[in-house]
Design goal:
356 residues, mainly alpha, two-stranded antiparallel sheet, 5% strand, elongated
Length: 356
């Protein structure tokens, strides 16, 4: 029977009696030709050999990993993290490819995607940009050995997040945020200096009060930010009107290189903050309650808050306020969202840490 194609066809008998509803299978047997028999045995043999090789390789790999774990535990952590990273990177590539195909088939734009797909594209693009220098360094002959050394001793600079251990991820996030938070006071000072150029006395006083509140170590209310929102759609606070110093400061806040001409810095800042605004809109539709703890932490970190030392409740509380601000702003007021990365984050951790 294994060498034949068996067709089962259920044939119902029609009749008026009770037994007329019984059914019997009709079996049709079609013999295979000699050529088909030969192909069958060849395919079966190849499949058997392949399965044996894969099974043997898997057992050897498991033994090797146990050997490393037992005799070289530190190296085993690096080894397992490295291969786990490749697997995660491959899965990300497949997912991003699927999203891109979906966008092409349905004619969707980035801001029309669900939140998680938008965030996946944003993060994957940043990961790829970071890994490009490593790829270029490894092109010359024998340069790959130097790259491995650099990756071992400088994982934060030369590796992407997939190739970090959990402990490294927390340490590196802290390190990156340290660079960012150093310029937060400068961003607030620049806001206060810009107030002197505002002619409307009422709005000028409101902006000064906002800046002074933050400098005193108090986190501002969302309503205070909404009061001055329209000031950020024109000079001197709109993104396209920021001076070179402020453009460099906010480039560091956004983890962008500040070593570029000011007009390029302003354009990149606008592009990135509008991208975050689109994410906010998709996040509002999804709902904060549908985010996992890791997603909450990532969302806060992207928007300027160091979420490494905060719990999920604190992250959610802060993110709700951010989205409340973002959803009421216009695209022309995106500069307020950029400034709020400093205004809403600078004192939040200190206030939470001071509470019992």
């Amino acid at each position: 029977m294994a060498l034949a194609r068996v067709c089962l066809r259920l044939q119902w008998l029609k009749g008026g009696s009770f037994f007329g509803f019984l059914h019997y299978p009709t079996i049709c047997v079609t013999p295979l030709t000699s050529q088909q028999l030969s192909q069958f045995f060849t395919t079966a043999k190849r499949s058997s050999i392949s399965s044996a090789i894969i099974s043997k390789a898997k057992r050897l790999n498991e033994k090797y990993e146990r050997f490393l774990e037992r005799n070289f535990p530190h190296f085993y952590v690096i080894y397992s993290t490295f291969f786990r990273g490749f697997r995660l990177l491959y899965l990300d590539f497949k997912e991003v490819s699927g999203i891109k195909h979906k966008m092409a088939d349905k004619g969707l734009k980035y801001n029309q995607l669900p939140y998680r797909e938008m965030e996946k594209l944003r993060q994957f693009r940043r990961d790829v940009i970071k890994v490009i220098p490593v790829v270029l360094l490894s092109i010359p002959p024998f340069a790959n050995y130097i790259v491995f050394v650099l990756m071992y001793f400088f994982p934060r600079q030369f590796l992407m997040r997939h190739f970090w251990t959990y402990q490294q991820q927390q340490e590196f996030k802290d390190a990156y945020h340290t660079f960012r938070v150093q310029v937060y006071p400068d961003a607030v000072s620049g806001l206060i200096q810009a107030a002197s150029k505002i002619k409307d006395q009422r709005l000028k006083n409101q902006l000064l009060n906002l800046g002074n509140t933050v400098q005193k170590g108090i986190q501002p209310e969302i309503s205070e930010l909404h009061l001055v929102a329209k000031l950020f759609s024109g000079p001197p606070l709109a993104i396209h009107r920021l001076d070179t110093r402020q453009a460099e400061i906010f480039s560091r806040v956004m983890f962008l290189t500040p070593h570029m001409p000011s007009f390029i810095l302003r354009r990149r800042l606008l592009s990135h903050i509008i991208e975050i605004r689109h994410l906010d809109q998709a996040l509002y539709i999804l709902g904060m309650h549908n985010l996992s703890e890791d997603e909450l932490r990532t969302a806060c970190y992207v928007r300027g808050l160091n979420s490494v030392h905060l719990n999920a409740v604190q992250c959610k509380e802060w993110l709700i306020k951010w989205v409340q601000l973002s959803k009421k702003l216009k695209d022309t007021e995106a500069s307020l969202l950029l400034h709020s990365m400093a205004l809403l984050s600078l004192n939040y951790f200190q206030q939470k840490a001071s509470k019992p």
